[in-house]
Design a protein that fits this description.
alpha/beta, Quinone Oxidoreductase, Chain A, domain 1, 9 helices, 15 strands, 27% strand, binds NADP nicotinamide-adenine-dinucleotide phosphate
């Protein structure tokens, strides 16, 4: 039987889950979809949840995790993509309820596929991955709400995470002053080395959150954390400021009075990259291939498939930082 190499998450008899490299039968893939040989994937928080059996992300196991994939089309039964076409697939149901990119092959509907823009390599596209794409969508949302470098500092929470670091690099590329909120004191120097202008310790920021409003400090924010952090950021925005709310690394709750909205005109912009229309994804990928084409080398660690399960466990324990590029072919 033909097989391919990939990560395989399965349920143990005691209800726990294990993710390990396996030889997976080719027939788990859908022959009616586009077959893509994956060269690179990446690690995102959602992959860590899926590979740990989180039913809110993945309903059925065994399962191949991986919400990101970049590779080459091997076969498209409907003929939309020629064999050899370089493509990117991020989000939709990839790695959630469809087998994902942490493997040598994926099969996906053609409607999930972006042709790799010229100016990007497969490797670079997965350095960016869903985290970078989301940072890009957050940036676009802030720009559409009129935020300019002259308006003042932009705060990024969860600054040492994949989404946080991609946001920092992008904001700096576009000339913004950046304030980072981070719980990792040991990475403060690193954050400065990638351009962060000021760092607020997470614990200090959250010491006092109960006032209706705080002094107007941030022109805008990219929040990856949610909960009290998002609440205090909203209460600390300058008049007319915007927050791109992307994540929930700390909490899904948002228990907030209405004052920031009606007394300061704060705008809360929800960002969800996975199911965004393909045209929006294409627009952001095109930007990354042209005017947003900066190096991510400082924030990316390259690993192979075998190393991914351990790193995903570390990710859930809050012990990782930056982006992880996964080479799927050895
Ligand atoms: N909306 C979307 O489309 C979209 C796309 C991608 C990701 N996300 C979400 O965005 C979030 C971040 O994703 P990621 O890939 O960057 O994850 P990540 O690499 O694991 O980073 C998360 C960061 O959040 C901070 N953090 C962790 N636990 C925390 C806690 N209990 N309280 C406060 N801060 C905490 C940490 O940064 P510090 O130590 O520096 O504080 C950590 O590095 C996740 O919730 C993910 O699901 C959303």
């Amino acid at each position: 039987m033909e097989t391919f190499k990939g990560l395989w998450t399965s349920e143990n008899v005691d209800g726990t889950y294990v993710t390990a490299i396996s030889n997976i039968p080719m027939d788990v893939l859908n022959p009616e979809q586009v077959l893509v040989q994956v060269f690179y994937s990446s690690l995102n928080y959602k992959d860590a949840l899926s590979s740990n059996g989180h039913r809110g992300i993945t309903r059925n196991f065994p399962h191949i995790p991986g919400i990101d994939a970049a590779g080459i089309v091997i076969n498209d039964p409907k003929g939309r993509f020629k064999p050899g076409t370089k493509v990117i697939i991020t989000g939709f149901d990839l790695g959630m309820n469809a087998h994902g990119g942490l493997s040598e092959f994926v099969s996906v509907p053609s409607t999930w596929i972006i042709k790799l823009p010229s100016g990007l390599t497969l490797e670079k596209s997965m350095q960016i991955g869903t985290a970078g794409l989301t940072a890009g969508m957050a940036m676009l949302a802030l720009q559409q709400n009129g935020i300019r470098p002259i308006d003042g500092p932009i705060v990024v929470s969860g600054a040492t995470g994949g989404l946080g670091m991609c946001s920092i690099l992008l904001l700096k590329q576009l000339g913004h002053e950046v304030i980072a909120i981070s719980g990792k004191k040991e990475l403060h120097d690193f954050l400065k080395s990638i351009g962060v202008d000021e760092i607020i310790d997470r614990e200090e920021f959250l010491q006092e959150t109960s006032k209706a409003l705080y002094s107007m400090r941030f022109a805008a924010a990219i929040d990856t954390v949610g909960g009290d952090t998002l609440i205090k950021i909203l209460k600390s925005l300058k008049a007319g400021g915007s927050v791109a709310a992307c994540g929930m690394a700390s909490s899904v709750e948002l228990n907030l009075q209405i004052y920031p909205f009606i007394l300061r005109g704060a705008r809360l912009l929800g960002i969800y990259s996975a199911d965004s229309p393909l045209v929006l994804k294409q627009k952001v990928w095109n930007k990354f291939s042209k005017e947003w084409n900066f190096s991510l080398d400082k924030i990316v660690k390259t690993i192979n498939l075998e190393e991914a399960p351990k790193i995903m466990q570390d990710m859930l324990a809050g012990k990782t930082s930056g982006r992880y590029l996964v080479k799927t072919i050895t």
